[in-house]
Write a structure and sequence with these properties.
10% strand, four-stranded antiparallel sheet, two-stranded antiparallel sheet, 504 residues, alpha+beta, elongated, Alpha-Beta Plaits, 23 helices
Length: 504
Amino acid sequence: MWAWGVLGVIVALAMCVDVTVTGPRVHVRWEEGVSAGDREALEREHDLRRGVPDGRTWRYELGDRSQENIRALVGNVAVEDTAYIDRDTMSVGGRDVQISVWYPLSDVVDRPSELRPLRRSLWLVLAGGLLLWAARALKAGARRNVTVAVLLLVGTLAVTIPFSPSTVTMGGSADHVRSRADFESWFGGRVRFEKHLSQTLLLQVYSRLEPTDAAPERAVVELSRAATAWFLLGALAVGVMERWSVVVVRYLGLVLLAPAALMYFGWREFGYLPLSGAAFPLLFRGLRAGGSRLEAGSVLAGLGAALHGSGLVALAGTWLVAGGAPGRLGVRVERVLRALAWGTTAYLGWILIYAVVLNLRIEPSPETFSSWRPWLVDEVRERRVSAAMLSATGVRDILMSAWVVGVPLLAVALSMWRQYAYEVRTLLWYIPPSIAFLVLRWPFEGIGGGIDLVVAGFPAIYALAWVCAHDPKRTKIAAVLLISAHYAFWRVVLDDQFVPLRID
């Protein structure tokens, strides 16, 4: 069996290699009076192949390389001049053999070395695949040990090989850390309400650093590392809560396979901060079994909304699930009130600290353009073209965004309706805000530059992963879809066509 696998690899590699052989090239400038018919006759006479015109000069491959043929060509009265022919020896150069190798995204980067950022995807695929194997093959104690080790390894890699601003464009983050003056102009002295908690944390880190020109970038790096630690802590907490069950280990494997996990490799824009792999499992268990896990899931959603306004998507999903999940009317009302109280407190309770303790003023976003996609006609906003949803570009962007964030997993989850009706019904209440945000929201830097907002606006990926993880066959299908989504992620990030046109 292994021999067939090796043969398949060899065939696949051979298909990636393209060998092009071209005959000896010559250039012929025909006399001005030579007609098309006469030229074609002379081409046949002297075995001149694959002619390409450039005015009166034609580029050819020479079939007959004999001295007699070359001498006759050079001496023909219809030929004004030639090139790439040695007139002393009446000879031409040999055949030109070119070997080209196809590799993923070869049409958007010039050299394979420019694909080095993709190694982070490879690490996540390996880590996620290892967890899926551990869920199937190991007992509880071993599953726990392997899962903890894999999560710590991912965290270490995320810190040691973060994305570099010189290799990947991360929105407008480079402008914010160019100097202390730029950083303080953007963040200092006030709190922008749409990301009040993340900005406040960033300012607190910045204020404790040595006041040098490196301080802005160091502050951003430290906050990104804290985000990675928070993500891993949530994953470990879910594992402990579920006692390292087969389902939760499969779930964590899918979480690592999702392209959203790439954000934790030091992404400089913080739209992804609201994402939490722990929020939906806590919410689900709180709805299914009662207890305080409903409040814990609501708090995580509220904290996400405080970190960035995109977190309101998860918060809205939490409120919908609390009211829509099966139960008597009185129970549903109670759940909604609990989710509202705890989620809203975690979202807005910080404002008093900003005003009273830190003496910071709170301001709305300085953006003066609409962040929603137009419907039918492209619009120019802040010198960038916002493609209409129903235009070819708009549809393309929405479909690529859906691929990146894992929307195809919805079909997999829906196929589980009969066996896992409660899980799927809960998912269907949770997912509408994510779908709406994905379709309607227009990232200012395009889906390429604003990829953090694209993944942040779809917290339903964790709900989809949670449902799919309940079935081993569906887990495998979901894993394949998420691995394919890494290609979509890099296509969007590296291809300039996913950056909106700029009108100067």
